Amino acid sequence: MAQQAVTGASPGPAQLGEPLLKVRGINKHFGPVQALTNVDLDLYAGQVTALCGDNGAGKSVLTKCIAGIYQIDGGQFFWESKPVAIHSPRDSSALGIETVYQDLALADNLDIVQNMFLGREQIRNGLLNEDDMERSAGKTLSSLRVTTVRSIRQPVASLSGGQRQSVAVAKAVMWNSKLVMLDEPTAALGVVQTNQVLQLVRRLRERGLAVMVISHNLNDVFEVADRIAVLHLGRMAGQDRADAFDRQSVVDYMTTGASTRSRRADGDGEKRGQS
Amino acid sequence: MEKNVARAEAPESEDPTAAAEAAVEVPPEIVAQTLGQWFQAWMARIRAGDSGVLPVILGLVIITFVFEGISPHQVFLSATNLVNLFQQSAVFMVLAMGVIFALLLGQIDLSIGFVGATGAAIAVQLVQPATTKWPWWAAIAAALLVCALIGAIQGTLIARLRLSSLIVTLAGGLIFNGVMLIVLGLGPFSGYPSLAGSNANLQVLYNLMWGTINPTVSWVGMVVLVAAAGLIMWSADNRRRRSGLVAPPVSLTLLKIGLIAVCAVVVVAICNVNRAAIGTLEGVPWVIPIVLAVFTVWMVLLQKTRFGRYVYAIGGNPEAARRAGVRLANIITLCFTISAFTAGIGALLYASNLGGMSNNFPGNSLVLQAIASAVIGGTSLFGGRGKVLHGILGGLVIGGIYNGMYLLSIPVQWQFIVVGVVLILAVSIDALSRRSATSGSVARV
Fold first, then answer.
1. Which of A20, A200, B399, B411 is least surrounded by CB atoms within 10 angstroms?
2. Smallest Cβ distance to B26: which of A110, A134, A151?
3. What's the confidence (pLDDT) of residue A237?
4. Which of the residues B2, B45, B303, B309 would you substitute to probe the A interface, choosing the one with the greatest number of A C-beta atoms within 10 Å?
């Protein structure tokens, strides 16, 4: 499937360098409820990081903090090693962070092009520049090899679940984004469509994007993830390269916040080379 | 997803999975290469339940044949009556083209009747030579400005205070019924300011509905307009075809332009027949270019601008629009402003038709007829689906039914009943065809 990478080869795990986004010591509470406590997270360009955790572990809160929907109460973001403040969705998309939420936020009555450009329409002489928008939408879709849609002018209502997910992802990567966060991208999809979406995630990695996938589904996680981070009750229970985990250890981290099965997987504490 | 897989009889299927999933409501013009394929795809789409404006057109044809058949002396299709019919429908059409902006959001505007009437009453009062003597254009501008302002206030209440549009505009309808009566009570006209008289400003308002354009000018204007529309359509489609974008086949573009030309020629030819029993009454009535102008401006606004795109997006998925950075409150306010502004135009036409304003102005039934027109034309009350054209087609249907029954001297109680039944029929056909298209799942939009 992966004959060529679209923009540059994906860096091997050994030469990761600095994370694209470093999250350090994030705290977030809602009233008396402490949703995130001292959370650290590293997201690398050209790597798929799976964010796992049980319900209520804080996956969505963490994602929304990075996306600028929630404001953090403490801690710091480092974007390309520079400290940055993310106060609003605008800040995060200005950095190049795009989020694909579980409900996809597509308007069923609009076609693919219209959805992909929603809110960022191109204008010529005061009117919509449909031709250019259609061209760039087509280019983005074919660069992601989303080829199963019949026409990019068909309404999103007529697409399958996998195709909708593809459109939502394409919409997110069209804006020179560097980090794409996918919230449960395969929930509610069948086997074939899940594979479509996982392929798409791999292509994002090939393009050199940092990808964060929130998922419950350990099959998917082990299928695509280069790195795994597990949240437990608002704390980062462990994060490391995916091959440092196995299924049982992820489950242990998710349910108890610790695992005795594998060596400690807190990525920053140890060398990342061959271990 | 699961709900769409059912329709597997796609006309062309180069990619088996995609075709099976996507066959349901792909507009035919985006997959067809030739006219034949286009018709195939079109038929497939109709079978799949998305019949577009076809039912309304069929309805119009049926109305025409039935009333032509049973009207005394086959008077229905006479030039006099057809022009008459258009004039009577014009008020429904214009009001419907405005209220569609509210309907597209999934909202409703019940105030258009009396808000428009308030504007019309102001205009008719202002031009009176006995009192204020305003020039016609200033009076019309003032009237439409007042309407727009009222719409903006209602829109603000709905968008920013998140009040229900049903309640706000219901209250608005009541309030402006009162305001209209107050405005009409001003001056020495005992509630009936009239447009009769030789004063030039009165004449202009009266002529909105009754004035006609010289037959020669009508022909020339028609040719210019059709040529311009044809040129725009042709060059747009051609440019897209050349650059390999999704575009209809050449023959389809030509067919569409041809249809427009034929309609235009027929309309002008009918209007240019001398319709007077004694003397001459010929030429296209002013109301036709007025309706066309409203149609064109609103259509361009809805289909070709950012604002229009956002209106559809909000109607389809407000949350998606919000996340895309659309300022919902502004768009919603603007939609209600447009709805009220257009209502002003519609009520001015009504006043012109009546030859003045009266405190019997049927604001409430006009609202319902306008909304019925939009819905019969194919606009959804749930938002996100509808076109300005629907207002014109639906208005013609309702106007045609009223006109035909009037010719047959059917009593007014039966006219109401028939129009009500047609409305139910129109929505049922739409709902049923959509349900069969989605295999019993919830009808979207």
1. B411
2. A151
3. 86
4. B309
pLDDT for the residue B1: 37
Asked if B442 has any chain A CB less than 8 Å from its own CB, the reply is no
Distance from CA of B154 to the nearest CA of A (A): 25
β-pairing verdict for A210-214 and A48-53: parallel
Name residue A230's beta-bridge partners: A52, A238
More confident residue, A2 or B159: B159
Distance to chain A for B385, nearest Cα, Å: 7
Q: Which residue in chain A is spatially nearest to B3 when comparing CA positions?
A: A160
Chain B: residue whose CA lies nearest to A162: B1
Q: Picking from A68-72, A194-198, B243-247, which range would have the lowest pLDDT averaged per residue?
A: B243-247
Q: Which residue would you say has higher pLDDT here, B365 or A270? A: B365
- Enumerate the H helices of B35-164 as residue ranges: 35-47, 54-70, 79-104, 112-126, 136-160
* Chain B: residue whose CA lies nearest to A168: B320
Contact A163 B21 (CB under 8 A): yes
What ipTM goes with this model?
Answer: 0.82
- Which stretch of A42-46, B187-191, B398-402 has the lowest confidence by average pLDDT? B187-191
Would the CB atoms of B321 and A160 count as touching at under 8 Å? no
pLDDT at B416: 85
C-alpha to C-alpha distance for B199 and B134, rounded to whole angstroms: 11
Does A212 have pLDDT greater than 90? yes
Residues sharing a CB contact under 8 Å with residue B55, sequence separation 6 or more, in sequence order: B378, B426, B429, B430
B321/A108 Cβ within 8 A: no
pLDDT computed for residue B30 by the predictor: 59
**Residues A138, B1 contacting (CB under 8 angstroms):** no
Interstrand relation of A21-30 and A33-43 (parallel, antiparallel or unpaired)? antiparallel
* Partner A contacted by B325 (CB < 8 A): yes
Phi, psi dihedral angles at A241 (to 5 degrees): -60, 150
Distance CA A100, CA A218 (A): 20
User: In this complex, is the C-beta atom of B385 within 8 Å of any C-beta atom belonging to chain A?
Assistant: yes
CATH level 3 topology of A18-105+177-268: Rossmann fold (3.40.50)
C-beta neighbour count of B432 within 10 angstroms: 12
Q: Residue A194 — very low, low, confident or very high, per pLDDT cuts 50/70/90?
A: confident
A195 touches chain B (CB under 8 A): no
Measured distance CA(B292)–CA(B272) in Å, rounded: 18
Q: What is the pLDDT of residues B319-334, one digit of tens each?
A: 889 888 889 999 999 9
Å from B24 to nearest chain A CA? 6
Residue-level pLDDT at A93: 84
Question: What are the tens digits of pLDDT across the range B68-92?
Answer: 888 888 888 888 899 999 998 999 9
Q: What share of chain B is helix, strand, coil (3-state, %, to 5)?
A: 70, 0, 30
Q: What is the pLDDT of residue A166?
A: 86
Minimum distance, in Å, between the CA of residue B304 and any CA atom of chain A: 5
Domain ranges of chain A: 18-105+177-268
